[in-house]
Every structure is written in structure tokens, then in C-alpha cells.
Amino acid sequence: MDLAFSSEDLAFRDDVRGFLRDHLPAGLARRESQGFHLSRGEVAEWQRCLYARGWVAPNWPQQFGGTGWNAIRKYIFDVECGIANAPEISLIALSMVGPVLCRFGSPELQQRFLDPILRGDLWFCQGFSEPQSGSDLASLRTRAVRDGDDYIVSGQKTWTTAAHMADYMICLCRTDAEVKPQAGLSMLLLPMDAPGVTVRPIATIDHEHTVNEVFLDDVRVSAANLVGEPNSGWQQARFLLGNERTHNAYVGMLKRHLLRIARLIDAAPARGASAVACAQFRRAHALLEIDIDALEWSALRVVAGEQGAALDAAASALKIRGSEYLLRAADLEMEILGREAAARFAPDDVAPLPAGADPLAVGRSTQYLYWRASTIFGGANEIQRSIIWNTLFRA
Ligand SMILES: Cc1cc2nc3c(=O)[nH]c(=O)nc-3n(C[C@H](O)[C@H](O)[C@H](O)COP(=O)(O)OP(=O)(O)OC[C@H]3O[C@@H](n4cnc5c(N)ncnc54)[C@H](O)[C@@H]3O)c2cc1C
Question: Which helix (H) or strand (E) holds 216?
């Protein structure tokens, strides 16, 4: 199979590069490149640019506002955005909720939610994980009990990314406790400003606020906000998580790291690194680059559909490798920075750099600490290994 890009795909890549060069705000790209989490307002700025160009939802069917790109073009777009330091735009709404609504939502839900999501007017968080239910998601206990035209939702979600910025939660909850766990789940679009919703930040090692606990105390949600049929939530959740895993090869992000590591190595002698140390850094960079190239070719084989029925296993393998390479890249950055790696700098547009500090060090330790979580979120890597085993080797 020929995995090289066609001349049309290369022209498309040039088009994407030109658009990013001309429209991606420089301040936004710098903040993103430093690895800090952006505010909703900052991300909305970029989403408006993409919306105006019609490029906001590559993964949606075209009739709902998707781009109509084939898998190769989506891949090219994703990688180019990664390299150019374009922020991910309202990821949960656009990459998870939108496709679920396009596939399973009623025409009424599609009418109410899809366009505001495209425009960036509605933000979502993903309310799946609970204190006792992460990997074993089907055991979750948040209940939704029908009461007239509403459901009453009670329970607790945890690790909920961006709950403090979201308008809605896509909430997986138990609507039937009498059947086997997977058969009794439903998906509700739960307004985050409803009485009974409490959001509490979880303090994380990187000192950023991204994840939260969400307490749901008798929250009244209109039954019109149910996605699909009652008790069909497991099927929808699997669809959503499949999208999340395929997305997680991190190739664009890894290429971004490679570029930065090369710059860090160039600056290392001025920071006092010996010639021997610099040679070792270059070797580690080259080895990482080779592995990332191989990952990219594997991702392209998946994108080109070569894996067929084993797509689930391939998506899991990409997630494992991509997240492991992120850790390796972040480790190498810390090693090259040496003593400076220990400093936790604020974004340089918030607090000026201390005298003598290397601008390339800004955000490095914060991102290094955040990437520790990449082997956990989107389904822990041990679970991905089980998926590979079950898909490929179990009769
Ligand atoms: C930064 C971050 C952001 C997140 N954002 C969200 C979000 O927005 N929404 C959301 O719903 N969730 C979110 N999560 C939660 C995430 O999906 C879960 O943390 C993950 O699924 C693991 O579940 P757990 O934390 O309960 O760990 P557990 O399931 O308790 O697992 C603990 C350890 O045991 C291993 N393990 C568990 N079961 C098995 C098994 N059967 N075989 C082998 N090993 C096993 C796991 O791999 C892990 O290493 C986020 C997590 C993090 C860290």
C-alpha cells in the first residue's frame, strides 16, 4: 500500500499551513506551545477563526457542519495544527459530544445543540468516571430516576476535565439497576447551572486547574435531554471513547516536542552543557524522532484503513505508544534543562522571566508533570493492553 501523500493532499497541506500562518494568533500559539492550559475565552478566539473557514469540525458528517475531508486530510490537518501550536478547541464538545449527537441524537437535540457547539457557544465536560468506577466504567452508580417529564440525577463524578468552564455535562448514568451493568446506562445532557450541581477543583501536581469533582444532588434534567433511547448509553459511550482513543496518537504534539527539543539542545552549550552531554542529547533526540516517525506510519496505516477489523486494537496501540513517547519527550526536555527544569515559571505574559532564565524553560516543568496523566486518561494503558489482547488473541 502506498502511504505517501498524493499531490492533492500535499496541496491541501500547504493550504492548511498557509491558513495557520495567516490566522493563528501569535500570542495564543506561544501560550499553547509553553504547555499551559488555555482559558475558554482564548480557545474561543481560535474556534471563531476555524468556524469562519468551515474547518471547525473535521470529524462530523458534512450535513451537520463537518468538512467532508477523508481520513488522510483529517490527519494532515490534525498534525499541522499540532506542529503550529494551535490549541485544541472545545475538545469534548467537538470531538466527543458532537459525533455522538450526529449519530444517536434526536433531530430536536441536533437542532438545539449542534450549531451552538460549532460556534463555540456551548462547552461540555465528560461525566463518565466516578470515585469507584474508572477503568470499570460499567459499574458506575450515579442514578437517573424518571419523574414525569424529567430525570432526577444523583451521584458523584470525578476527574471531570473543564467542568468549571462547561455549560453542559454529557453524563453517563444508571437508569436501570435490575439488568446487567452495561444494559442499564443512559446518556443525559445535564446543564451545569442546574440546582444541585457542585463543582470542586482537584489539586493536581502541575498546579493547573483542569480537573474537578462534580457532585450531583437531585439534579432535575429534562427527559428531552436524553440521548437516544433509555438504557442505550453504553453503546454511545463506546462510540465516544473509540473516537477519543483514535484521536490520541499525539503525532502533532510529539512533532512539536521534537522541534522544541532541537532548540533546547542548540541552546544547551550556552547553559553550560558539556560537548559529551550535548552529543547524548542529540542521540536521544534522534532515537525519539525515529520512534515518532514509526508511530506516524502506524497512525497513517490506521487512517488508510489497513487494519480493518483490528482497528480497535490499533487505536489502543497508538494510544499506548503516543502517550509513552510524550513522557519520553518531556523527560528529555527536563534532562536538557538541568537545574532550570525544577523552576515552575508562570506564562511569560503573566509574570516576567527572572533574569538569566531561558525562555524555552517556561512551562516545561508544568507540562512534564501534566503529561504523567496521559497514560491514564482516555483509558489507562493497562486497559488498552487488555483491549489489544482481547481483540487480537482471544478466540
Ligand atoms: C488528567 C485526567 C483527566 C481526566 N478527565 C476525565 C474526564 O474529563 N471525564 C471522565 O469521565 N474521566 C476523566 N478522567 C478519568 C480517567 O478516565 C480515569 O482516571 C481512568 O479511566 C482510570 O480510572 P481510575 O482513575 O478510576 O483508575 P482505576 O480504574 O482504579 O485503575 C487504577 C490502576 O489499575 C489499573 N487497572 C484497573 N483495572 C485493570 C485491569 N482490569 N487490568 C489491568 N490493570 C487494571 C489501571 O490501569 C490503573 O493503572 C481523567 C483522568 C485524568 C488523570
Answer: strand 212-222
In the chain, % of residues over pLDDT 70 = 96
**What φ, ψ does residue 188 adopt, rounded to 5°?**
-120, 145
> What is the β-pairing status of strands 124-127 and 168-174?
parallel
Residues 6+ apart with CB under 8 A from 111: none
11-25, 126-140, 329-343, 346-360: least confident range? 346-360
- Compute CA distances 239 → 145, 242, 245, whole Å: 24, 5, 10
Q: Which range, of 306-310, 323-327, 338-342, averages the lowest pLDDT?
A: 306-310
Q: Do residues 79 and 132 both lie within one domain?
A: no
Terminal C-alpha separation, the chain: 28
Number of domains the chain is built from: 3
CB 185 within 8 A of CB 138: yes
Is ligand 1 within 6 A of the CB of residue 132?
A: no
Q: What is the per-residue pLDDT across 7-40, written as a single tens digit (0 to 9) for each?
A: 999 999 999 999 999 999 999 999 899 888 888 9
Ligand 1 pocket mutation, candidates 130, 159, 173, 371, criterion most atoms within 8 A of CB: 159
Which CATH number goes with the domain that contains 270?
A: 1.20.140.10
pLDDT band at 343 (very low <50, low <70, confident <90, very high): confident
Same domain? For 61 and 164 the reply is no
Range of the domain at 287: 245-393
